[in-house]
Structures are given as C-alpha cells and as structure tokens.
C-alpha cells in the first residue's frame, strides 16, 4: 500500500465513523441527548460537542469565548479544562442545533481533507492550544479516525444502539492500541525478563497477540502462539476497547467477559495500567 493509499484509508475510516454518528443522532429523541456516557461528566450531547470542537479546531475555527462554571468536578487538570470549554459552551444547544452543526462540520472537514495538498509524511501541528504538538500528517489522520470511532462507540453504548464494532475505523483503532501493549506489560506493569503475556480477543475484531519481554526488559509484540504464557487474558473485543480506552476497570466489566489465567499479581499490574489511548 502506498503512502497516499494509507492516507486515504484513514480518511475513509474517519468518514465512515463520523457519518455513522450523524446517522445515529438524526432520529434521536431530545431527552436521549442527556444520557450519561462512560466519559466522566459527559452526556451524549457533550461527546458530540467534543467531536465537533476537535474537527472545528482542525479547520482553523477560533475557540469560543466562554467561562467554565466552578462546579465541574470531573475537571482534573488543565488539559481537561481545555477540552471542556467548547463542550460546556454547547450544553444549552438544542438537538436540531447540534445535528445541524455536526453535519456542517462534516461537510467542511470532508472538503478540506479532499483538497488538502499535504503529503503523508509532511509535519503538521495538532491544534490544541498549549497542548498541541507536531506529527506526520498520516499519523494525525490515524489518530482522528481512532478518536471519532471510540466516541462513536461511547455514544452507541449510552444509547444502547450497538454497531460498527468491525468498521474500518475499528481496524485502525485495534492496530493503534496494539502498539501500546509492550509498554504496558514491560514498563508500566514491570513484567520480568523472559515473561510472555498473551491476549486472546474474541468477537467481531478477534485477534491473538503475545507480548514477550527480553533479557533487557524490553517488550515486543507478535501474533505467534505462546505455549504456557505467564499470563493470558481472554476477553471480547468491546471489553478490550473499554479497558484500553480507559472507559472502565476490569472489576466493572460484565461477569464472564474477562478471563485471566496465570500469574495473578502480574495480571493485576497489567490491568491497573491498561489504558492505551495515546
């Protein structure tokens, strides 16, 4: 696959997911916009506001002028405060106002992506005020495809309307999340040299991956089967996503959705550090 094909793959994945969000919201009753999601302090409306705000920033739109109330207890640091401002600004918006703004930002952003002269490896800036950073253009698109799809799934769980767990953006997300597993096992959980940890994930995005820790304590990831791993996690894809995206803890998953075999102390350390969203 050429670099330009990779870019188009990420754009197509983003398009599929954000348009799915728009279709999901179109028939939604007004009271459903206030349902809580697994994002702390955020309702369905708030998650949609966040998606709109991020895409608007990428279009170069100015941030709204707004003062946050002092009683938002889910605001823990300056980054969460930065993300909250455009969300809180829209809390008084009606459902038609929200769907119209989302549709408009999709049209504008799709046009901008289609006409962008940027090359796959050109360095661009992710515009997040003091939290912005530079990265290759294809990586920015990859992150946006993942972020929008993860929020699509936040909305689907809140609304009890499951779907798209095997969409193009789900595949992008799976591969991106897998890249963080060696760090979780070897560095954050402190798995000893020579350890092997297997992840057997079932469902619409099934996969089997093994993290191996070498003599120097570095972790690597492969798809080969390890006989008698030190730890093996068996879980469904949606539970894996919820853990990896920091939406829940292992003890809060539905009974039977996670099975752990092997070294329980190491397994607990891995699960305690399992948030993989970059």
UniProtKB/TrEMBL annotation:
Gene3D superfamilies: dinb family like domain. Residues 16-156 form the Mycothiol-dependent maleylpyruvate isomerase metal-binding domain. It comes from the Bacteria. Pfam families: MDMPI_C, MDMPI_N. SUPFAM superfamilies: DinB/YfiT-like putative metalloenzymes (SSF109854), SCP-like (SSF55718). Residues 174-269 form the MDMPI C-terminal domain. GO terms for molecular function: metal ion binding. InterPro entries: DinB/YfiT-like (IPR034660), Maleyloyr_isom (IPR017517), MDMPI_C-term_domain (IPR010872), MDMPI_metal-binding (IPR024344), SCP2_sterol-bd_dom_sf (IPR036527). This is Maleylpyruvate isomerase family mycothiol-dependent enzyme.
């Amino acid at each position: 696959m050429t670099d330009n094909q990779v870019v188009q793959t990420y754009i197509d994945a983003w398009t599929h997911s954000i348009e799915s969000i728009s279709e999901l919201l179109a028939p939604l009753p007004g009271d459903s916009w206030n349902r809580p999601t697994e994002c702390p302090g955020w309702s369905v409306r708030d998650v949609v506001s966040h998606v709109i705000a991020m895409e608007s920033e990428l279009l170069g739109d100015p941030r709204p002028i707004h003062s946050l109330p002092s009683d938002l207890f889910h605001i823990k640091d300056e980054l969460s405060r930065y993300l909250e401002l455009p969300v809180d600004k829209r809390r008084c918006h009606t459902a038609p106002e929200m769907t119209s703004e989302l549709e408009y930002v999709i049209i504008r952003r799709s046009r901008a992506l289609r006409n962008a002269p940027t090359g796959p490896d050109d360095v661009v800036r992710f515009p997040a005020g003091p939290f912005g950073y530079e990265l290759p253009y294809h990586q920015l698109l990859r992150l946006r495809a993942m972020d929008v799809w993860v929020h699509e799934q936040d909305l689907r769980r809140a609304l009890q309307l499951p779907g798209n767990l095997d969409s193009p953006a789900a595949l992008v997300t799976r591969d991106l999340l897998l890249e963080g597993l060696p760090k979780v096992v070897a560095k954050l959980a402190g798995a000893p040299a020579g350890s092997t940890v297997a992840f057997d994930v079932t469902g619409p995005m099934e996969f089997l991956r093994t993290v191996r820790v070498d003599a120097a304590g570095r972790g690597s990831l492969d798809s080969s089967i390890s006989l008698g791993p030190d730890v093996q996690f068996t879980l469904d894809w949606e539970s894996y996503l919820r853990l990896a995206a920091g939406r829940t803890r292992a003890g809060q998953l539905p009974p039977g959705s996670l099975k752990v075999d092997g070294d329980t102390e190491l397994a607990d350390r891995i699960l305690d550090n399992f948030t993989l969203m970059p």
